[in-house]
Amino acid sequence: MNSTQLPGSGPPPRSPARDTLRDMWDSRPLRPRDDRKLAGVAAAIARRYEIDPTLVRVGFVVATIVGPGLPLYLAGCAVLPDAGRPGGPPPQRSGPSSALSVTLLVLAALLAVPLVLEADRLIAAVVTVALLVLLHLARGNRPGAREAAASATPLVPWTTGPHAPTAPVATTGTPPAWDPLGVAPFAWDLPEPGPEPAPPPAPRSALTPVTLAVALVVAGMVGGVVLAAPGALPPSAVPGAALAVVGIGLVVGAFRRAGRWLAPFSVLLALVTAVSIPFNDAVGPDGWAVRGGIGEAVAAPATVAELAPEYRRGTGSVELDLTRLDLTATPQAAGPVRTRAEVGVGSVLVRVPPGADLDVRGSVGTGDLTVDGQTRSGQDVDLTVADPGPDGPGGRVLELDLRAELGTVEVVRG
């Protein structure tokens, strides 16, 4: 035998993963000139796989937030050919890469370097690429999808109807006004041509109102749980539940080519959810909310046992009067007395006994910080003060950890 191949053995098996990637490359779509917001990458992917471009654009925005969105978009600009102007020469889908494509690929590679260095962003990048591959496997071979992507225009199937061609009709008689030379006697008995009838309006999808109604019902149910069982769910769960329902509606609408008006509602609900997170409440040991919330929080514990380990407000103020605390060191009561106070936007005011031994760690994102007569102002202000008081060391140390993101922090004696 002249061949080294064993009798009965076939060609080496082909790798399914390699075949899938090769098919994705060979059938990559053109970036259309119409319906594009930036470079047409989202519109090209949407036409290739017959989904709503709004979903693809939202997906790129989400991917940009978690990490791989921008390098993937730049890579799409480089590898997906531009459809060119209408009526121009067909684009080159193969051949040497242009300088712009090479530049975009290099820039995408540089932006992708941090994705490899951070585990969470690397996971997000792998998940995003896997979703693209699954999309190709699920919808890559749909009838007409490849042709629509190659021509950068959706295919319009041929249908029969009032404007479909009809067979010639033989007739005799006087030529009508539209045929004075009598060259088309077979069509003389046809009615005079009139204006093209307007196409019937497409039926409006009920996806948007139904999704919003379900979101409202779900948000109401979650709100009832928040009010009936304090602490079981945070208040931010109310807009979060509505956002989840609207997100499901967007995914369903992408495959049904409906529900585009859900996109602005999703953005609004996302903003409301983000803003409401700092206001999540939980009841503290002394009966008032210490884990966020809005308004004033005032506490004046008479004993060390009544002092909560933490006081917090999302927006408002925290005022602690610790002047009645007994900080005398005894064999039964020794060691420092600790508490923490924090506000997102507002003020923190702590009054301490005149002779207390203080160990204060204060910080302000933007605002003013005053501890025992020492003042700092500006952005990212930090101040640590260890002051035994006017009578010198003695007694239990009062340790305070105070923080305001935007506002003031003040510690005064007396």
From TrEMBL:
Biased composition annotated in UniProt, kind: Basic and acidic residues: 16-29
Domain Phage shock protein PspC N-terminal: 28-82
Provenance organism: Pseudonocardia spirodelae
InterPro entries per the UniProt record, alphabetical: Phageshock_PspC_N (IPR007168)
TM region(s), chain numbering: 58-79, 99-116, 210-230, 236-255, 262-279
Keyword entries, A-Z: Membrane, Transmembrane, Transmembrane helix
Stretches the record annotates as Disordered: 1-29, 363-393
Domain of life of the native organism: Bacteria
Name under which the protein is recorded: PspC domain-containing protein
One Pfam family cited in the UniProt record for this chain: PspC
Record carries keyword Nucleus: no
